[in-house]
Task: structure prediction
Amino acid sequence: MTVTPMQILEAWLAVGFTLMIYSFLYKDNPLFKLGEYMYVGLTAGWGVCSAWFNVVWPDLIEPLSRVFKSYLGATLDKPLSHNENLLLLIPLILGILMLTRFSPKLGWLSRYTFAFILGTASGIAIPLTVSANLFKQMEPTLKPLFGKDISAWMTVNTLLILIGVVSVLIYFFFSLEHKGIIKKVARIGIFYMMVSFGAAFGYTVMARESLAIGRMTKLVKWAGQDYYYASIILLVVIAGLIALLEMLSKKSKPADDSTG
Result:
């Protein structure tokens, strides 16, 4: 496999910034901060460019320019679609109002945009959330326990779901004092919640481990001759820089103490 110079440069940059971020495992240091700032800055820059070229330009600026050309009598390469009309001025105005956040006097105008965004997002998200979480959660509790095509395992599974839903709901039902049978059922709800939280944490850890394994695999690959031993060389360089910075910081501390 032939490795191009651009791939080698990309590998060296990836290894360098990866090791800078991993240097936090030792302690907080300037190299970690450099990698952190580069990551945040590049992510923000990529997000802005992606939003401009994938959303703002093709879905707003270009269609709106075609609308104005049509009203001015210019000849278009293709007819206007039903989405290309003056209603596009509404998102344009809302987007401009968002920029007033940079002005102390006009910043209040951005509240209209934020209100529109939050209202629209809530109107879309609430029905989907209720349907996905509430109704879908209720469906298994309403399944029959016995029947012609229902096996013993399906019956046990339905009972476990029913007990879990009811016990967790009772745990959060504070209108009744948790004592007697209510307390016992609530404790079952605690058990179900702990199992749920543990499974969620396990999924999170597995996802992070998967990312770490993928990154380590890349570092091993980039340590080969094809990439001029990027991982090995940069590991030595970054470790040396961290050691040098530690020595300089220790030398500067007595001087600072004496001046104080």
About this structure: The first helix runs from residue 5 to 22. The chain has a mean pLDDT of 92. The radius of gyration is 30 Å. Residues 26 and 200 are 28 Å apart (CA to CA).
